[in-house]
């Protein structure tokens, strides 16, 4: 880390070219289905504006967020960077909002060209009522629940909608979607049960394109692709096929700067709770990154960093702003103040850090803190 970046405790590098390459891999695998990009939660913590701009340039036409505020911010980011000059102006990318349109925010959808996901019969009615009030056809995505029991029309509401199709008057259904509960377990019988429920649900609805697969769902086979796939995590390097080789390119690097190195005697303890006691003369390197930055407390006794090709075990507890590593076995010249310890990178990907923390790559990414210096590696597009 050099210059301005060295002020931060760590440098988070985000490889936009790798994100674009991952999107193309998923798109090619899902073709002829279209490939959207899920950029909710600030693109899983990596920066929705930067990620979506790169993917829109690469040809992605459909983006998915969770909330209306994410949708508004994304629309602004995509509008600010759309090509000008003599280029033919392409139609703006579609933005779907998974958590739907809260009654106080319906007009925001119209104003910013956002498309709500309707998650209940009540959502359908209130969107249809707005369409009637405005005397317009309003686009919407319909979510049918096939086994998550979170959002989406449950079977009884779906049956009522099928019996009373007029309730959709004024609503232009651009997509019917459902979401898999067990896509990361390819042999789980639930995947096929949900698929059958989804096919049956569509048969009772007006004709509309369908979307079923998240990242892992794309790898369940073409039967799961339908018309549009919705990957999130795999774009950002999380493996969609846990247990097998990861087909995605790594996207993030996290290099933490060593603040201080000290030598302690055998018997000296390190950190809160005095949980680690040196069993030999030990050199301890402290870096300025902690659980407030997304390095989970559960990494105590299990986590590692890397200096060059050498693994350095995390010792003691994870503090809010600091963690400590045993660097005794690394040449002194490499473990000095201002040298860096790799927390995410070639030696330890997002999934490996997650496994050490007892969680999933999704949570590692979305927990990455706001205090890092960030560097975006350009796409080259
Ligand atoms: C988050 C989400 C996705 C993306 O899932 P990944 O597992 O990250 O690919 C797709 N669809 C819905 C409805 C989601 O909530």
Describe this structure in words.
There is one protein chain. The chain is an alpha/beta fold and 381 residues long. Helices cover 28% and strands 23% of the residues. The protein has helices spanning 16-30, 40-44, 48-58, 68-80, 106-112, 121-134, 155-163, 189-203, 215-218, 350-357, 361-367; strands at residues 10-15, 34-35, 37-38, 62-65, 94-97, 115-118, 138-143, 171-177, 210-211, 228-229, 252-264, 269-270, 276-277, 282-287, 304-307, 310-315, 323-326, 340-344, 373-377. The strands form 4 sheets. Strands 1, 11, 14, 15, 16, 17, 18 and 19 form an 8-stranded mixed beta sheet that branches. Helix 4 (68-80) links the parallel strand 4 and strand 5. The two termini are 26 Å apart. The structure holds pyridoxal-5'-phosphate. Pyridoxal-5'-phosphate is lined by residues 38, 40, 98, 179, 214-215, 230-234.
């Amino acid at each position: 880390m050099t210059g301005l970046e060295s002020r931060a405790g760590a440098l988070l590098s985000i490889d936009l070219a790798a994100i674009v390459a991952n999107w193309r891999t998923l798109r090619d695998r899902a073709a002829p289905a279209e490939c959207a990009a899920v950029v909710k939660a600030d693109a899983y913590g990596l920066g929705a504006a930067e990620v979506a701009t790169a993917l829109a340039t690469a040809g992605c036409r459909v983006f998915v967020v969770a909330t209306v505020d994410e949708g508004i911010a994304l629309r602004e980011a995509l509008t600010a960077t759309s090509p000008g000059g003599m280029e033919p102006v392409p139609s703006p990318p579609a933005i779907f909002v998974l958590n739907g349109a809260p009654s106080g925010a319906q007009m925001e959808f119209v104003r910013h060209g956002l498309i709500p996901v309707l998650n209940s019969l009540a959502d359908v009615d209130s969107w249809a009522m707005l369409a009637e009030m405005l005397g317009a056809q309003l686009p919407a995505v319909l979510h049918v629940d096939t086994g998550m029991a979170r959002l989406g029309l449950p079977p009884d509401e779906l049956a009522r909608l099928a019996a009373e199709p007029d309730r959709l008057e004024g609503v232009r259904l651009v997509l019917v979607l459902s979401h898999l509960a067990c896509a990361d377990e390819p042999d789980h019988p639930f995947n096929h049960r949900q698929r059958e429920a989804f096919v049956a649900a569509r048969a009772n609805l007006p004709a509309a394109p369908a979307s079923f697969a998240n990242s892992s769902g794309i790898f369940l086979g073409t039967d799961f692709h339908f018309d549009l796939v919705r990957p999130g995590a795999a774009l950002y390097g999380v493996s969609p096929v846990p247990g097998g080789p990861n087909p995605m390119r790594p996207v993030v690097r996290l290099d933490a700067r060593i603040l201080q190195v000290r030598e302690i005697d055998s018997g000296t303890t390190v950190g809160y709770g005095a949980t680690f006691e040196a069993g030999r003369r030990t050199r301890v390197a402290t870096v300025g990154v902690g659980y407030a930055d997304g390095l989970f407390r559960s990494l105590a006794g299990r986590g590692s960093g890397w200096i060059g090709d050498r693994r350095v075990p995390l010792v003691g507890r994870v503090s809010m702003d600091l963690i400590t590593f045993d660097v005794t076995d690394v040449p002194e010249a490499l473990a000095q103040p201002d040298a860096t310890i790799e927390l995410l990178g070639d030696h330890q990907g997002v999934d490996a850090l997650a496994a050490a923390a007892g969680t999933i790559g999704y949570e590692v990414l979305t927990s990455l803190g706001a205090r890092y210096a960030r560097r975006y590696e350009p796409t080259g597009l």
